[in-house]
Amino acid sequence: MTRRSPSRAGEGALHPAHPYAGGFEEIQCVGEIRQGSLSVRTTHTFEAERIRTRWQIERKRGSEHLQATVRFPTWASGATIVAVLKSHRTVVLSAGNRHELALSSVSRFVLRCGSGQSGYSVRLLRASRDARVRVAPGKPQRSNPHPGPQLVLEVAHGDRWRGVEVEAEIVPGATAAR
Fold it and tell me: What's the gap between Cα 87 and its chain centre?
C-alpha cells in the first residue's frame, strides 16, 4: 500500500474475527514485476465508488514478437459483455468473433455476470491508438472456478513497441453494469 486516507485500513490481523470498520477516501496499491527485458507496474487506486487502475508495460530491449494484453473477467454462466458506444448504441460482444470497434468510439464496456445481478463497467481513460479489443472464453482458476467470457484488450503487439500505458476506471456493482 503506497497511499491511504486516515482510517484503520491496513492495520490489524490478516483474518480478524470482526472486520475493521471505517471508511476511506482513497487507498493506493502498487505492484511491479520484472522479467528479462520486460517490466510491468500496476497501480490500483481504490475510491468509494470506483477503482482506477494503471498498467505501465515497458520493454527495455529485444525485437521478438510480443503481445501485451489486459483482461477483464466475468463469472458464472450467462455472463455478457456489451460495448456502450459514445453514440449510445450498444454492441454485444461474443467470444470467437473479431470486433472491429474503434476504441475511441467506445464510452465504456459493461460486464454483466451470472444472471445480471452483479458485474461492473470499464471505462478506458488511456490506451494506445492501435489497441484492439476481443472477447475470449474464460479459463477456470481458484479465484473464478466458473468463468464467463473475458474482455481482452490487446494494448501492444509486434516486434517494435517499447512501452505502453493503459488506464481504466472500473465501477463495480449491478447498477454499473446496466
Answer: 23
Q: Specify whether the backbone of 169 is left (phi greater than 0), alpha (psi in -120 to 50) or beta.
A: beta
**pTM across the whole model:** 0.83
Q: How far does Cα 171 stand from its chain's mean position?
A: 10
Q: Say which residues have a Cβ less than 8 Å from residue 83's Cβ, sequence separation at least 6.
A: 90, 91, 93, 99, 101, 106, 109, 110, 133
Sheet holding 132-137, edge to edge: 66-72, 149-158, 132-137
**Rg over CA atoms, the chain:** 18
Expressed in percent and rounded to 5, the helix, strand and coil fractions of the chain are: 0, 55, 45
Q: Is the Cβ–Cβ distance between 177 and 119 less than 8 Å?
A: yes
14: Cβ contacts below 8 Å, ≥ 6 apart: none
Confidence grade of residue 173 (pLDDT, cut at 50, 70, 90): confident
**Cell numbers found for residue 31:** 505492484
What does the block give as the cell for 21? 470498520
- Residue 105 has phi, psi (to 5 degrees) of -95, -5
CA angle 59, 133, 93 (to 5 degrees): 160
